[in-house]
Structure prediction request, 655 residues.
Amino acid sequence: MIRTRALACGFLIAALALGAVAAAAVRAAVPASKAGGTPGSDDRAVMVEALPDGSRRVAHVQGATVVPARPLRVASIGWTDEVLALGITPVAAVGDGRRGFPEHLAERLTSTALVELGAGGPDLGALIAARPDVIVAAWYWQSSYERLARIAPTVVLQPAQQHWRLRLRDLAAVLDRNAECTAALEHLDGVLAECGQRIRERLAGRSIALLRVFAREYRLYGGKSWSGPLLYRDLGLREPACVKELGGKEVGRLSTEGVARLDADTLLLMTEEGLATSFQVRDRLRTHPVWQAMPAGHAGGIHEVPDLLMRGGILAREHSARLLAEALAP
Amino acid sequence: MIPLAAAGLLLVLLASVWLGPTPIDPSTALLGLIGQAPPGTDALLIAEVRIPRTLVAALVGAGMGVAGSVMRTLARNPLAGPDLLGLNAGATAALAITVVLAPHLGNGVLALVSMAGGAAGVAGVLLLARLVPGGSAPDRLVVIGAAAAAVIGSLTTTLVYAVGMQNDLLFWLVGGLGTVSRSDVLLLAVLVAAGLVASLSVARDLDAAGLGEEVATSLGVDRTRLRVVAGVAVLLSAGGALAVAGPVPFVGLLAPAIAAGMGGARLHAHLAASALIGAFAVVAADTAGRLVTTPDEKPPGLFLAFAGGLWLVIAVHRRLGRGAA
Prediction:
């Protein structure tokens, strides 16, 4: 008994000591790993320095990389939408899970090699075969950085929901496409302004929210989700109280009662593509008495939308804005 | 003890109908219970969301309580509940696999799947216990069961991440009652009532079996019949609950233990008390889960696992203490 107690005390002391060491390590590591001050993370731009031979040195999340001037053969790991928006057809790009290239990009990627993503990261064989001049990788795959950098100069950028404009400018700086970037943003702003005005005129101040249906829960997307900035900032639509209530959260997981409390005048309803359960839940929800009691329910303010709205990217935003304008203000 | 448990259950039932993310006037809630609330959103919420959800929570808890009581009596082991004999783990794994293969199945079919999975889980643990020397001894049996449950649980987790359906399969790891409907009330009422009736029909034999094999044999208990009927009772009570609510940790362990602690040697009374306490626990946990954060909800399993784990530590401490004395 005494031995056990001594052992427990020993473990307790060890736990406290190791905990203190771990806490110190975490504190030391946080600025680097969360990359608060690192170029190419959150709202920090990458730092690009021109070299005498025309190439550029890029300081990014994983370090510094020398990128050739105006590279033509670009491989994209997670930045395909943005690379296309800058007028470059990538020589290789990762797909979208098991579905190949995302639908809204597929027709522009017919000559691009599809890079499979395995559990250990992107398929390096396909990348080598594509002989890229430069690889741009999303931060999710930073663990593959060492291997990628052996294939071609690799720049890692952290996707930024709020600062996607900045991130596009970063990519443009890395790929030496600054003029194309300005043109792409101007084009997008034009589309957003036009669609936004069209929708705002039709909605006349009525609020809007995005609800996604899963097998056993409903999710309401907040102002800081992927779709939030598009709806409430870019298109200038009104945020209902139920979305404001989420505060800084990206998503609220709702029960049936949560759905009954949705005070949005217009509700965008998203089902999982090709998932029978999702349609079933949607149908069950639509026949539920609380549905009729919601402001959007009895005003005929419910519109089904595809999951394109959940995607980051410049082209995805443009497609989404056009799609919403078609649905809400035909 | 039964009146006490019933009174406690009544209180949480009322609280569950009254409390939630939408503030409802207590008088409206009371009137809503008898269908007399003034028409409006509150009346609709009470009738279509809160009452069905409360009833499902109560039935889930009662089902797990009954299943736990029968299992521990049959095994003559206070720790031999659905958690530690592989029933919960087996059912959850079977449900998750089925949802991947056939996502459109309704809760009725899922209840059958859950029973099959639960039966397979328990069968696996009992088989394993036979293979391990002395594995049927009460303490060893639950250790084997806990180990098997951990292995089966890891398979479920692996599946959730392997098939890339995390959003839809996460439910089978945490459970919840957020989207239950009136049809679930009916399904569970039928299954739990059938389980309770089956349990009561063998309660006398179970009582005898609880006194030891020799006593049971001398009292003329047909052991094969007893095992079959008790097994069916357990699967009926717990199967539907797990299919509708997902994992419901520790209720099948905790409710019978508290019921036993409150006294009452006869299994009839024990079953009733265990059902009431199980219902109390799940309704209380579900109500709490609705209140801690809004509009997000927390699954009741969160609170149940915490309370159950704490109790298990205390129970083991007491048991070992008694053994050493």
Summary: Chain A touches chain B through 32 residues (CB under 8 Å).
